[in-house]
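Here's what a typical entry looks like (C4-dicarboxylate ABC transporter):
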Amino acid sequence: MLNRRNFTRLAGAAVIGLPALHPARAEARITIKFSHVVAPDTPKGKAADRFRELAEKYTEGAVNVEIYPGSQLYKDKVELEALQLGAVQMLAPSLAKFSPLGAQQFELFDLPVLFDGRESLRKITEGEIGEELLKMLEPRGIEGLAFWDNGFKIMSANSPLHWPGDFKGLKMRIQASKTLEAQMLALGAMPQVLAFSEVYQALATGIVDGTENPPSNMFTQNMHEVQKHATISRHGYIGYALIVNQAYWKNLPGDIRTELDRAVLEATEYGNSIAEQVNDEALEAMKALGTTRFHELTGEERAAWLAALKPVHEQMADRIGPDLIQQVYDELELDR
């Protein structure tokens, strides 16, 4: 675990990279370290690379963006603390990662069977609710810049997962989220919290029986090699928040930040526009390899999943906020 005592060397190194307050671009080149835990060939990885390209172009080389994918710098358990302490300037963590900071409202996005597609999702991430959620990070020294897509999840295991009863007794890996824990318990599974970088090995050795992921994450982490079955359930969503160290961001020269804001906007539009295609391509690639048998839920099976998972909304209302959940229901025109 990172803390202020053992973090001196890393944080000190980061301070060297902080920009001067003077607005002139002739100052020393500004470096932004951007760490994330997934592979470059994923929606987040591609969006990060596009941000780097645009940031360096629009600032005419005044900014150097260093991308560290695949948990090269930090695993997902410690990356937020690294950002707060200044050892890294930019992250795009999964939305489930903000609960340990006291922002459990972000577990809204972990609720199963809430969004029926990207159109309903956009109503939240690109509307007032999404804006208010990002503002909740400010007292924690974090500036929320945008929501980045990954996609809708599929379930995988070494046994078929057609009905809720098929999960009974299975050890299923989840992110550290009480809502995801409740989801797996509702299906009769035993939730196991593991860092993303540890999942492949845990599946390969039988520490866990299965997991949930968008196809792009499953494919780029080679989970299809160690999972015999997967169900295209689209039962939940994984997305990210693009965030920066607030003090670092506010201390950037005004003209530099203007160009970086432009790069963020265009990288966000790009990443979100390709997310569905990247996931579709990953799914087709795994099907072609034949190591995993994929199952599409029938209407009857989907109804059974919905009946099992919908009660999680009520169970998590006090944690996420009943008013917030009602706001989302109203925005999406859903019945409680």
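The longest helix spans residues 254-289.

More examples are in the samples folder.
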